[in-house]
Amino acid sequence: MNNSISKSNRALRLLVVFLYVMATLTALISLTGCNSGKVDVITYEDSKTWFHEDLACVSLNGKYGYVDKTGKVVIEPKYDYAFSFYNGLAAVVVDGKYGYIDKTGKYVIEPKYERAGNFTDSLVPVKLMNQFGFIDNTGKMVITNKFDNANAFSEDLAMVRVNGKCGFIDKTGKIVVNPLYDAAGDFNDGVAVVMKDMKFGYIDKEGNEVIGLQFDYAFSFADGIASVMVNGKYGFIDKTGKLVGTAQYDYLHYYTDDVALFEVNSRIGFLDKEGKIVVNPLYDDALPSSEGLIAACMAGKWGFIDTTGKTAVGFDYDRCEQFSDGLALVQLGSKVGYIDKTGKLVIDFLFEDGFEFHDGIAIVQSNGKFGFIDKTGKFVIEPKFDNVHLYLED
């Protein structure tokens, strides 16, 4: 599938990690939607549902609109681009300008912005006259457009760039962390990763450097743990900055199901939360654990292991994806189907491609078109869309 992301491709996954680092370095606003690349149908953004607020963003004949779970067109495809609904509003693009519609398709905020974010918060960043500010859901400019760049609010603070340096503001627009840094990420777990002179560290919400700028790269904290690079190798640190184990890995993913995927010498294994290896690095490729099982590749074939390394589903497939809603996509030859956790084939190998189940619905490709199926394999929305694009979230 030309314009989709194959999550089973380890090289691509590492590229995604690199691009995440570069996004942190540039501190750009994250604006995902139905307009990433040459995308012609559905967007899967930052929450695990194909129908965000009960509507999916679709494209017909190059224009974007919205359908409900029955496939009924709720808002006619008439926009150049469109984004998912958040808090009752969706960003749309007409003639290169961003505005916002409600679920009837009525403009709540007329298209006039050069860039705009999703209403995941009460205030969203927008670009107007080449400067970023923040508007509310009526379109009122609550924080004046005066910044070179801006991120969405996270934990009530937003990164802004002023004269090439990054700091943070609160929802009144007051600068609470002075713009001192070359790059900065969003606040997570009460701290934000910052970079100055190509060294990374962490600050708290008062701007105190709680973990000094000492790492080659650093990523946001999640559940009290963050991945950092030291002398070209990755390891985890805790909130005090202390390494959990050692920094010895070529790649290190966050924990899922209490285990973390690592790569060393082009082999994949898994760590527990104490940094102990619980699955030895024996695999050519693997995906992060999901619903207690890990899709792994050995000698060119894919199967599933549990979080101790025990084989759960035999290595018989050309491709496997993560379990979601109790089912996983598997591929044999040029066709994909779905299995359950026992390895039983639940949906036959009928489709050219497909994606994971969420809320009992998956997207599949049939005869070059994309539609939605239920967990029996029955189409709930017939395949009639031109393409599909997924946004990875880790």
Structure, explained:
With 394 residues, the chain is mainly beta. Helices cover 4% and strands 52% of the residues. The chain has a 4-stranded antiparallel β-sheet with strand order 5-6-7-8, with no helix packed on it. The chain has a 4-stranded antiparallel β-sheet with strand order 9-10-11-12, with no helix packed on it. Strand 30 (293-298) and strand 31 (301-306) form a beta hairpin. It is flat. The protein starts with 9 loop residues before the first helix and ends with a strand.
Which structural traits does this protein have?
single chain, 394 residues, mainly beta, four-stranded antiparallel sheet, 1 helix, 41 strands, 52% strand, disordered C terminus
Summary?
With 394 residues, the chain is mainly β. Strand 21 (217-218) and strand 22 form a beta hairpin. Residues 1-46 and 388-394 have low confidence and may be disordered.
- The SS-based structural class is mainly beta
**What is the rounded distance between the termini?**
22 Å
Task: Indicate the radius of gyration in whole angstroms.
Answer: 22 Å
Principal-axis shape:
flat
- Continuous helix count: 1
| Oligomerization | single chain
Largest sheet: 4 strands, antiparallel
Approximately how much helix is present in the residues?
under 10%
Spans of 5+ residues with little confidence (pLDDT < 50)? 1-46, 388-394
Strand order of the largest sheet: 5-6-7-8
Average of pLDDT: 87
Please indicate the percent range of residues in DSSP E strands (runs of 2 or more): over 45%
